[in-house]
Structure formats: C-alpha cells, structure tokens
Design the sequence.
DNA sequence: GACAACGTAGCACGATCGTTCGTTTTTATC
DNA sequence: GATAAAAACGAACGATCGTGCTACGTTGTC
C-alpha cells in the first residue's frame, strides 16, 4: 500500500466523482484541476503522467467499492445474505450518482493495450472473484442449489448488473429494477436444462 | 431516409471501424480524416459538427447491424432459430474486431444529456424491441415456455452479451463463450422459482 | 535562524482539438 | 467548351491537451 497525503486523496476523490460522469479518457487534467481548485502543474506533480492518474483513479475506485460495499457485506453471517448485500450495494452504487469508472474504463480500453487496460483487467478479475466467492459461500451454506457453478453464476450476475445499468440509466426503463431482481432469482435457482 | 453520396458512405464506414476501437468521444476528426485520406475541413463539411458525425456513426452502426445480423435471421422460419441466429451474429459481431460503437456510446454518454444520448437511447430501445420480438416469436412457436416474459428475457439476454464481452475481451477468459451459452439456455428454459 | 525538502504556482512548449473561411479543384448542365 | 454548382483543400482561428521547467512559499530538522 502506498502512502497518501491529504491533498492527493482529495484530488483522487474529486477525480473519482468526475470520472463517474465523463469516464477516464475525457477526464482532463485541466478540468480536474479547476474542480479541485489548484493549478494544473501543481496537480500534475502528484502523478507523473495522465496514465498514472488514470490507474490511481481505478485503484481508488476499487478501494471505495471494497470498503463501502464489500466489507460491510462480509460482516454478515455466511450465506446468501452476503451476496444479496453486495448486489444491493452495487445497484445503489450504479443508480445513485454517475456510473462506475471501472465499467466505463473497461469499455473504453477494451481494444487499447497498455498499463490502464492491465489495471482494468486486474480489477475486473478481482470483482469476479468476489462475486464467485460469495456465490460459493451461498452454495456451501445450503442457500442455493449445489448444481450451480459459482463462476457461471458470477458471469451471469455481472451481466444482470450491466444490463440493469443500461436499461435504467440510458433507456430510463421503469421496469429495469424489478427485471433485475427477477434475473437474480433466475440465476440463483435450480436450472431445469431441457438438455 | 437520407440521401448519401459515395464519399460520405466511405467516411462513415471508416469512422465506424475506428469507433469500434476508440469509441465515439476519442474519435477525432483529424484522425478520421487521416485514415480516410482527405483533409480535415473537406471531411468536416459533410457533417456540420462533431455531434452530428457521432449521431450518423450511430445510425450507420444500427443500419449495419440490421442488415448484417437481423435481416438474415428474419428470413429463417418463425421460432427460436431466429433468436439464436441473432445471438450468434451478435457474438461474432462482438468478438471479431473491436467492440460495438453503440455499447461504447451508451457507457460514454449515460450521464451526458444531449442529442447523442437521445440517439443512443433510441437505438438501444430498438435493439431491445428486436430481442423482445424474437423471444415472443419463439414463445408463440412453442419453442420456449410461455411463462417467460419477452421483455424479461430480452433484458437478461442483453446482459449476457455485455458480460460476455467483458469476460472475453477485457479479462480474456477462455470460458466466457461457453458460460454465455449456458446463460442463454438458462434464460430460455423454464424458471423454477422457489418462491 | 540556516537549510534542505517538498508542495504548489506560473509560464510556456508543441501538438491537437473542433470549427471557419476563402480558394481551388472537380463535377454536372447546357 | 462555357458556366454554374458542389466538393475538397490549405491555412488559420482560439482553445485546450499533456507535459516540462523554474521559482516561490511553506514546513520540519538540526
């Protein structure tokens, strides 16, 4: 873990908020500096390239998501409650203000190799692991059928969130949330494969 | 429908390809002009603002998706085959080269009101309708259970595609495709809700 | 209180952004 | 082949991009 002084944290927090509405690429150092209230060069000195700034925003995003959503869920007793707590938090995280910088970055950089994409890949995998683990715990607790593969469920659930985001935020579909909840139920119940 | 001369179509086709790798915002008129092989101002004259260019790229994307993927599927006999043909085409469309400009734009503009967002919303709704209709046809043909709501299935399926895209393209997960297929099976089969 | 280290500001760089303008080249019409 | 219309061009605009450099102010240490 890296040392972080007060100013740098304040910058990152502002950058995080800004990135939620404009993404990582359209976030410019000039606009960020104006919003923070300091000079472009003074801000720039904390990071030594825009690429590094983007990476640290992703880091900050991950840390915020973990402490605000994952950590509280982990405190719940082992079982499906943890998973649902994460999902509730995630939905709120998606709905409230702006979208998720990680998702935005994932789409922006999916075809642009580089350090940022590597960081995105890393964070996405971590998120998948969190989901997958939570599913596994729910299975072990007997809350959901053991036929279900945790990785399969995780990928499906990830899709439910992404889809919800599009339907709710872009298409402004009033039914988006209830459909999301139905989707979750479907994923977590037994699968009656007709072969 | 608008009249379109040869040059404009060529520009849009090139822009479409470029947008698949960099998105709509990072696509600059200068870089596009260079790739097309004409001057910035000459190209700019065809559209009268960058915003209009972005909208026409989205239009072009929609038209291409329709003729390349939806139209061939419609020619198949009524039933689940149509839906699966669309999904096959969509997966290939997502996997082959770059991602989908519409999806990228949806993420980029979800919190930026304006004409572009309106166009994105319009196209997404059209895509949802296409999916929903295909599901409904499959139900009517008796290929999938009638308990399933077409809109519900459409939102789920949309999520499966988005998730697949992230897992395959960003996380480079080898199992992404097979999980996607499982997800599709799950969505299209009966739901055994344990209340 | 001298001194080193650090955080921040100011200024400027070359590049590129979207856009405008006037001119030249191409195309179509008679 | 003359002429009008349309298409493409080169140059330039003011603004902003990311990034350096230098200097000034603050802070902590001896």
Sequence:
């Amino acid at each position: 873990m890296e040392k972080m002084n007060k100013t740098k944290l304040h910058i990152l927090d502002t950058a995080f908020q800004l990135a939620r509405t404009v993404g990582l690429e359209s976030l410019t150092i000039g606009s960020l500096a104006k919003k923070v209230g300091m000079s472009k060069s003074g801000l720039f000195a904390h990071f030594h390239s825009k690429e590094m700034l983007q990476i640290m925003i992703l880091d900050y995003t991950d840390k915020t998501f973990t402490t605000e959503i994952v950590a509280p869920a982990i405190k719940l007793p082992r079982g499906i409650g943890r998973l649902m707590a994460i999902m509730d938090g995630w939905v709120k995280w998606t709905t409230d203000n702006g979208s998720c910088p990680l998702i935005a970055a994932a789409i922006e950089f999916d075809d642009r190799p580089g350090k940022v994409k590597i960081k995105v890949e890393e964070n996405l995998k971590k998120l998948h692991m969190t989901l997958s683990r939570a599913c596994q715990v729910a299975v072990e607790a007997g809350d959901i059928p053991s036929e279900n593969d945790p990785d399969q469920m995780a990928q499906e659930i990830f899709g439910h969130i992404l889809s919800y985001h599009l339907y709710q935020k872009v298409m402004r579909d009033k039914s988006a949330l209830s459909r999301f909840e139905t989707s979750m139920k479907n994923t977590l119940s037994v699968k009656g494969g007709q072969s």
Q: What stands out?
A: Chain A touches chain B through 56 residues (CB under 8 Å). Residues 5, 7, 38-43, 45-46 of chain A lie near DNA strand C (CB under 10 Å from a C1'). Chain A has one domain: 50-188. Chain A is about 70% helix and 0% strand.
